[in-house]
Specification:
This protein has 14 helices and 22 strands. The chain is an alpha+beta fold. It has 3 domains: 213 residues, Rossmann fold; 75 residues, Uridine Diphospho-n-acetylenolpyruvylglucosamine Reductase, domain 3 (2-Layer Sandwich), CATH 3.30.465; 115 residues, 3-Layer(bba) Sandwich (Phenylalanyl-tRNA Synthetase, Chain B, domain 3), CATH 3.50.40. The strands form 5 sheets. The chain has a 6-stranded mixed β-sheet, with helices on both faces. It has a 5-stranded antiparallel β-sheet with strand order 7-8-11-10-9. Strands 12-16-19-20-21 form a 5-stranded antiparallel β-sheet, with no helix packed on it.
């Protein structure tokens, strides 16, 4: 923890205003307490930014806990409560709203720094998740100890220490904190890595978080070098949102892939949740194909278009058709996702339980076709997908991009979010496939 303390001392100067993101958990309370120790040496203003995600009964009491700590220690307390969520991608939307709030507080107090309590175990989880799911060179690096956003810097002083180090620091310094029990809920992918995967690495090497940090730094250095090479050619091949294919094809193979990645990052505003190596390869294949005019759908309603010598991304879909082979996860053009999960207590239309003995694999996720019918669970006979949309009052504009899950024979097994088929298994029966739509 001394390294984290000295890291902060290298940045902070008298008169600085510092915003600390604090949930009230053991990590962020350790960070807030450490910055207060530094305040005894350096005259700095400390602001605590607390977000109530409003999904647990304990959230209000956690706000009271953090606010009380700030009041007792002369820390300015800034608070936001998220009242509703507009999408089923809770984690993604919560992150966006959280960091938007942090940015507002940084601007309000004219701060130079936002401090977060991300630690070495978080870095391990992030890197492993992105390796498994697929990402870019930058994405595989996880997150850096220092990153710049707009007119301030995000500092992550705990990135070189483990969760155990932080808990010991809390114990040694009598630091109180609250526990979010959902951090161990198996429904969330990150939690499964935290419970099942990371402990294995720690058993092999108790300092494995340092190895992952070194790995992350090397990737960041390589990424920075590649970025400099890409900068030399990018404006020659990509002009006003258009990639000129003949110029692009003259580039080195690795630089080509990076150019595509940069285009995606620009279009998605550096939100790497939507950028993966799969998307890069899909676009590369589209650009290099013999087809004169072609397109593919990307997440969040983005269309990748090729026309003769030009390639571009568009947020205005001219075609909503797609047909994906489903493995364990798929991002959909409507901004939602379908994921294969281990278990869940939910039993609504956003979850389906299937037995591979009843269907033909692999599953596919596609848009509707003329004449589509489904044997709806609980009904005798089949029902037209069109009629289900009408009964469910799904707007005309959403129907053409609504996902339909079919098996390899084309039999519809699920209309996510709306209806389950007769193939859905009751929650108390054995099944080997559980899918979640969010």
């Amino acid at each position: 923890m001394l390294d984290s303390y000295n890291f902060l001392l290298d940045f902070l100067r008298a008169g600085d205003s510092v915003v600390v993101a604090c949930s009230g958990g053991p990590d962020s309370m350790a960070l807030l307490s450490m910055i207060l120790d530094i305040r005894k040496k350096i005259d700095i203003e400390v602001i605590c930014a607390h977000v109530n995600h409003n999904v647990r009964v304990e959230s209000d009491s956690e706000k009271v806990f953090v606010e009380s700590f700030c009041r007792d220690n002369g820390v300015l307390f800034e608070y936001m409560k998220i009242n509703d969520y507009s999408s089923f991608n809770f984690e993604g939307e919560a992150r966006e709203k959280r960091y938007s709030f942090f940015s507002d507080i940084v601007f309000k107090h004219n701060s130079k720094y936002l401090l977060t309590a991300h630690h070495g175990d978080d870095l391990i989880e992030t890197i492993l998740m992105r390796i498994v799911r697929g990402s870019s060179l930058k994405g595989y690096s996880g997150f850096s100890r220092v990153s710049r956003r707009d007119n301030y810097m995000i500092l992550r002083p705990f990135i070189c220490v483990s969760k155990d180090d932080i808990l010991k620091y809390d114990s040694d310094n009598n630091i109180s904190y609250v526990i979010d029990k959902t951090n161990m809920d198996d429904v969330h992918t990150r939690n499964r890595y935290r419970k099942l995967v990371v402990p294995f690495f720690k058993d092999e090497n108790k300092d494995v978080h340092r190895k992952f940090y070194d790995f992350s730094r090397v990737l960041i250095e390589y990424n920075d070098y590649v970025d400099r090479q890409v900068d030399l050619v990018f404006n020659e091949v990509y002009v006003d949102g258009v990639l000129f294919i003949d110029r692009f094809l003259k580039l080195d193979a690795f630089i080509k892939m990076r150019v595509i990645n940069v285009i995606l990052c620009k279009f998605y505003n550096d939100d790497l949740r939507f950028v993966s190596d799969k998307h890069v390869h899909l676009i590369y294949d589209l650009i290099c194909s013999d087809k004169v005019n072609s397109s593919i759908n990307l997440p969040c309603g983005v269309l990748a278009l090729k026309s003769y010598n030009e390639f571009m991304l568009s947020s205005s879909l001219k075609s909503s058709f797609y047909d994906f082979v489903f493995d364990d996860f798929v991002s959909l053009p409507n901004g939602k996702s379908i994921e294969k999960i281990k278990k869940t207590s939910l039993n609504d239309n956003y979850v389906i339980r299937l037995s591979s003995a009843d269907i033909c694999l692999p599953l596919r996720v596609r848009t509707r076709r003329n004449g589509d019918k489904m044997f709806v669970k609980g009904l005798s006979g089949s029902k037209k997908i069109k009629d289900i949309f009408i009964d469910s009052k799904v707007s005309f504009f959403k129907r053409d991009e609504w996902p339909i899950v079919v098996d390899s024979r084309g039999v519809i097994v699920w209309l996510p979010g709306l209806k389950k088929s007769k193939f859905d298994k009751p929650i108390n029966q054995n099944c080997d496939i559980i899918l979640r739509y969010y």
